[in-house]
Every structure is written in C-alpha cells, then in structure tokens.
Design a protein that fits this description.
InterPro entries: MFS_dom, MFS_sugar_transport-like, MFS_trans_sf
Structural class: mainly alpha
GO cellular component, one term: plasma membrane
Radius of gyration: 22 Å
Strand content: under 5%
GO molecular function, one term: transmembrane transporter activity
CATH architecture: Up-down Bundle
CATH superfamily: MFS general substrate transporter like domains
Subcellular location: Cell membrane
CATH topology: Growth Hormone, Chain: A
Number of strands: 0
Mean pLDDT: 83
Helix content: over 70%
Largest sheet: none
Low-confidence stretches: 442-453
Number of helices: 21
Shape: globular
Membrane topology: Multi-pass membrane protein
Order of helices and strands: HHHHHHHHHHHHHHHHHHHHH
Length: about 450
C-alpha cells in the first residue's frame, strides 16, 4: 500500500479531482429528478397512461442496476481513466436525443441507457478519487460525492420550476435536454484527469504509476510501495472474490445498508407531495415541485454535520445512530396517521436530515473496505443492490398508500430502516484514519485495533 499517497498534503490537484468526480452523482440527482417535473407536461402531450408513467420512472433505475453491476467489474479490469470520459459522453448524447422523443419506448430506452451511464460513473469516479486521496481527507471528500447528488436534485427542481413558470408544461423537452449543459461542463472539468496509480501498479504498470505520483503530488515514490499486498490464494474474478469467504460479510453489509436506506428515501423523494396530501396538505403542480425540492434540500443539508461526524466520532457510530434516529419520525407518522400536515412535513424533514449519516457513507464504505483489484466492482455491486431497493420502494409506496393507508405504509418504511440498523450494528466496521489498503484482507472485526498507514 502507498503511505506516500495516504500521507500526501491536500492540494489543488485533489480539489480539482474531487470536483471532476462529483459530476456523476450530480448528474444522477439531476437526471432522476428532472423527469418528475417533465412528466407534468409530458403526460398530456404523449397521452401517457399511469403504467407508462411508472415505466418511464423505473427505466433509469433498472439501467442503474445493470450499469452498476456490469461496469464495476469492467472498471477493475481495464482501468478507471478509460471509461472516465466515455460515460459522460453517453449521458450527453442521450440527453440531446431526449428532446426529440415522440413515444414511450424511445424515452424508456434513453432513460435506461442514461441510468447505465450514471451507475457506471460511481465505481469509476469514486474508486479513482479514493485511490488518490490522503487518508485524513478521504472520508470527507468521498462523502461529499453524495452531497453532489442532492445538489443535482435541488437544481433539477429549481430548473423545472423555472421552465414551468416561464414556458409552461409544454417545455418538458427542454427540461429533459437541459442535462446536456451539465454533461458539457464536467467533460471540460475532467480533461487531463489521471489514471489511478494504485490500479496501474496492481496491473504491472509500476513505472507509469511512479511517474503520475511524481507529476501530481510532487514527491518521489518507490514503485514497490505502490504494489498491493501479495496474495497466496489463486486469483479469481472480482465478483467471485466479493461473494467468497474473505469479503462476503462486507459485501452483504454494503449492499444491505444501502438497500435499506435508499428504498424509503427514493419513495419519499418521488412521492413526498402524495404523502403530504394524505395528511391534508393542499397540492398542485408548482407546489408539488417546490415541496419536493424543499425535502431534497433538507437531505442535502443533513449531509454536512454527518461529514464532520464520520471524521470525529467515526464511521460506525455515525451510521448506527443515524439509522436508529431515522426510525423515530417514520414511526411517529405510522402511529399518528391523522397528524396535521405541518407535523407530517416536519417529520419528513427530520427523516431527510437524519439520513445524512448513511448518505455520506454510501460510497465511502465500499471504497474503504475493499482492495484495489475489486474496489470498483464492490462500489458497482452496492449501487446495483441499492437500486433494487429504490425501484421496489418507488413502485410499492403509492400502492401501499392506496391499499393499506398512510399509517401502515410509514410503519413498513420504519421496519425497513430498522433492518438497516440491525445490519449496521452487526457488521459496520470502523475505518476512520486507516490507510486505504489497511482494511483489506483479514481485518473484519470493528473492535480490532486501527492502524494508520
């Protein structure tokens, strides 16, 4: 493992790389959110049925499931830099083509490919960033990637609201195409971003790795220092390694806590106005857009105290207490389904704020718990599992509200969150202050001493 990279000073290079890597999460938040606003005009223009609306909404999530699993493995095989720009180009092309869609199936296909490209960016960009960052700044800057997601969601609702106000619901084509601008901006920012020296060294390209470290960090490094620890076992595929005895528990932990967090979260974001209307809050297209944007803003705000907590009290206490407290507002709404709309709004905002802990650890944990040769695969697999939760929650919540009522629906969400708490209590590890390679083989107990690389 490389103590030179782990102990390097934090420089403008790291800041620029962190900004460049935030493009994928920001575009994810924007692309997934802007379609909800665009549907206001799209539905009457294209004559969409309820089933077709659900299909359009789910297509990007299904694409993310496929993209996360597929491109995580590919990123570990061919490198981070190769695909770092290609996925943004795909997003840009799909955004432009969305302007000319004239039916359900072309739009579903474009949204599916967009989802694949967005999910591909998570293992590419977060593993690249993690492998360049100094230990002291790794948790905070990986956590800030999810802040970019919520910034993209808030921006989508602001842009959508302005389109509705200035051009009316018929501007939905411009809404879908507007992500092209963000793609172009991040294509420029990503120019010149280097490959991961850890990946290069692990794949026999030690000379290139040493040259990159000297160029971007300004220090000389012994090539042997960049090599990963030697393994005595036979080399197998990344997916097989993740599901094998050595990493199975960590793989389950990252996938399950992400699943239990994202299922209720996506449902709240997608159907927040419908939930609030069940508590008696008046609705309307513009009000719904602004209300959902407000909830997204609270999700974003909640990430900031969590970013401080993971580097002070640690990853494990932060995620456990966050899940425990997230249960409270959901249970309140479950046992008090006749609560005034103002109480329901405050409870949903409290839930959104408390989600900050799991949010900032969504990509921090899988990047810290797995070694270079399977890191991108681990991030991609966790993302894929989480999107199953997102799709299930988004599909079932409106059905549950109609068939079971608000109270039981909120109690189910509280139960899913409680399962996430149990997973964290049993399996969450402490990785605060550890060198990136120090968590790799064999260190599985959260009570084991922590060594800084």
């Amino acid at each position: 493992m490389s103590s030179t990279i782990d102990n390097a000073p934090y420089t403008a290079f790291h800041r620029r790389l962190a900004l460049a890597c935030s493009g994928g999460p920001l575009l994810d938040g924007y692309i997934l959110s802007i379609v909800g606003v665009a549907l206001i005009g799209m539905r009457p223009d294209l004559g969409l049925s309820t089933a077709e609306v659900s299909l359009i909404g789910a297509s990007a999530l299904v694409g993310m499931f496929v993209g996360g699993a597929l491109f995580g493995v590919l990123t570990d095989r061919i490198g981070r830099e190769v695909m770092y720009t290609a996925d943004l180009i795909v997003m840009c092309v799909c955004s432009v083509l969305s302007f000319w869609v004239d039916g359900v199936w072309p739009l579903v296909l474009l949204r599916f490919v967009l989802g694949m490209a967005v999910a591909a960016d998570y293992p590419i960009a977060t593993s690249l960033l993690a492998e360049w960052l100094p230990t002291r700044h790794r948790g905070r800057l990986l956590g800030k990637q999810i802040v970019a997601w919520y910034a993209g969601a808030v921006l989508a609702y602001v842009v959508g609201y302005l389109f509705l106000e200035l051009a009316g619901p018929g501007s939905w084509r411009w809404m879908l195409a507007s992500s092209t601008v963000l793609c172009a901006v991040f294509l420029v920012i990503r120019r010149g971003s280097p490959e991961s020296p850890r990946w290069l060294a692990a794949n026999g390209r030690v000379g290139e790795a040493v040259a990159l470290v000297e160029k971007h960090l300004g220090v000389r490094v012994d090539g042997r220092e960049l090599l990963p620890p030697r393994r005595t076992e036979a080399k197998t595929s990344p997916l097989r390694q993740l599901l094998g005895a050595r990493y199975r528990r960590r793989t389950l932990f990252c996938g399950l806590f992400f699943f239990c967090q994202v299922g209720p979260l996506f449902a709240m974001l997608t159907f927040g106005p419908q939930i609030l209307s069940s508590f008696g809050m008046a609705g309307g297209n513009l009000l719904d857009t602004l209300g959902t944007g407000l909830i997204s803003l609270v999700f974003l705000i909640g990430c900031y105290p969590a970013l401080r907590l993971i580097d002070t009290v640690g990853r494990r206490p932060t995620i456990i207490w966050s899940f425990a407290l997230m249960i409270v507002p959901l249970t309140l709404l479950g046992v008090w389904p006749t609560a005034p709309a103002a109480v329901a709004l405050l409870a949903l905002c409290a839930y959104a704020f408390l989600c900050g802990g799991p949010n900032v650890l969504d990509w921090t944990y899988p990047n810290e718990l797995f070694p270079t040769e399977v890191r991108a695969t681990a991030v991609g697999l966790a993302t894929s599992v989480s999107r199953i939760g997102a799709a299930v929650g988004t599909y079932l919540l409106p059905l549950a509200l109609t068939g079971l009522g608000t109270g039981p629906t909120m109690l189910i969400a509280a139960g899913v969150t409680a399962l996430g708490l149990l997973v964290c209590v049993l399996w969450a590890e402490e990785t605060k202050g550890m060198a990136l390679g120090a968590t790799s083989p064999g260190r599985t107990s959260p009570q084991e001493p922590v060594l800084v690389g």
